[in-house]
Amino acid sequence: MKILTEHINVPGIETIDVFRKHGGYSAVEKALKKMTPDEVTEEVKKSGLRGRGGAGFPVGMKWSFLAKPEGVPRYLVCNADESEPGTFKDHYLMWKSPHTLIEGMIVSSYALGANTSYIYVRGELMYVVNILEKAIQECYDKGLLGKNILGSGYDLDLFVQPGGGAYICGEETALLESLEGKRGNPRNKPPFPAVKGLWQSPTVVNNVESIAATSWIVNNGGEEYAKIGIGRSTGTKLISASGHLRKPGVYEIPLGITVEDFIYADEWCGGIREGHKLKAVVAGGSSVPILPAELILKTANGENRLMTYESLSDGGFATGTMLGSGGFVVMDETTCIVHNTLTFGQFYHHESCGQCSPCREGTGWMDKVLHRIEHGKGREEDIDLLVDVAKKIEGNTICPLGDAAAWPVAAAIRHFRDEFEWHIRHPEKATQKGAVFMREGASWTK
Amino acid sequence: MVNTQTIQFPADTLELVHKIIKRYPEGKQKSALLPILHLAQAEWRWCSPEVMDYVAGLLNIKPVEVYEVATFYTMFHLEPVGEHVIEYCRTGPCCLMGGVDVYDHLKKKLGIETGETTPDGKFTVKEVECLAACGWGPVFQIREKYYMNLTNEKVDEIIEELSK
Ligand SMILES: Cc1cc2nc3c(=O)[nH]c(=O)nc-3n(C[C@H](O)[C@H](O)[C@H](O)COP(=O)(O)O)c2cc1C
Ligand code: SF4
After folding, report:
1. What is the pLDDT of residues A217-249, one digit of tens each?
2. Which of A147, A305, B25, B117 has the most CB atoms within 10 Å of its CB?
């Protein structure tokens, strides 16, 4: 079942003519000519579609919170900042099939009553900005954007905004600050963007994949969408698969397949690279807890772990993780967990905006301590120090970046404490090139 | 006083600047800052104080409003850089794919460390965080172009091509 990527490999799908030949823009025709904005929102609510940017908040519900005061413009802003390590699905979708996003933008903007919408793309992806702008121009030329779209009386202008290189601008209020031409410092909430967003006007911020999915929902109905998946994990999800896989890449899966199938089946990643064994997975982007092989494949109760929001978080942080943004990073037995945790630690230290002291100072400390452990200068008490710093950041910051920085460190120690201890106790071995701790009796060392 | 008189976009870029400003409501022209800083960097390679003052003038905002933004975002070079700036991803997923070795090879080949520029002014190497291309790592970027699935051999080819 493919909703977003069915035609992604069709030659020329990035052009409007080929895209339309494969059913493109039928959702715009249907929504603008046959449905009211509220009817579109209703279908999205029925679909159970959850935000694909990481938090998984129901899209229809978010839309219904949008304030609609008379005479005040409303905005839809697409979050294409995609900077969470392990995540590259939005990049892939916009690069290969820009019209898939643009069609969703038109339908969603119509539902929200927005007459100007923006797609905020991370600045590094300037070539994708160019691809989108070319596709948008095609839409203006064909009357799919601009005044009185397809004779429906609805007007929409759509613009692409490049960022400047800052992970924090993926946080929705930092993104709005950035779009206003400022530093990307997250705002204190409330007020929420639905009430005071871009230039203090009511604004909805949604992820690329969330917005792209709305076209199919308009065409086929929310109930049809909700039939895909399991329970509250409805529909399909783009998974960015990277690391030690036979076939890394972006896969559109129906939510609910098993993790084991996703990793090993030929239809998906095709297994771990030749001659190696699965050691650990970061299932939802760098912010979510890492899990060792046995816990990613099965829950603590011995049930098959599924690719759903609920199953991945089964067991809480003690034995579970999160679906997050779907950045699925796979590590085999050659991976040094300490080194990987250090790269994440550096990342969050570099990306903290610096507004809150627990995050600004805490990410700096964690980076420093991880660095010394990795480089053979660690002390026995450093492990507990890391756990303590992580605890002090968690929940004490303006935005969730603090938590996102704390969780991966805490989880790496929770599941791979022996590896940190080995680094500290055997620095001469641990600092040798390619050296990796081998846990006795683990499934990946047998 | 900084002399900004010699700094001026060519006519077609200026036209683009005015088009970009029209993307936002009346009085919200500051929103054009990031797009215009990108244009400025494409024109002058780096964002010197003079360039930033010029951008402030174009948008009718205070120079400090440009400085504080240019210093916040990592893509803007605040010091002179070489003709080709190679920005490699140092984050976890690229490291899993052998990134560290490939980047070491790159630096050795150019004879410089991260943050340095070759004496002929041809190449600058910078370390950046995740470029959203993890499944195609190791990755680096030169201007708008992504170079993916890098190996030592590929790095050699790219450098030779750009050295011509
Ligand atoms: C530090 C941080 C980075 C984020 N980065 C992104 C991102 O790159 N893309 C994204 O869609 N959401 C990102 N988010 C989530 C957004 O704040 C927001 O929840 C999301 O864009 C809402 O869209 P959705 O409901 O469609 O997922 C990030 C959040 C935080 C705290
Ligand atoms: S938690 Fe970190 S990134 Fe978020 S606002 Fe505070 S300092 Fe900035």
Report:
1. 999 999 999 999 999 999 999 999 999 999 999
2. A305
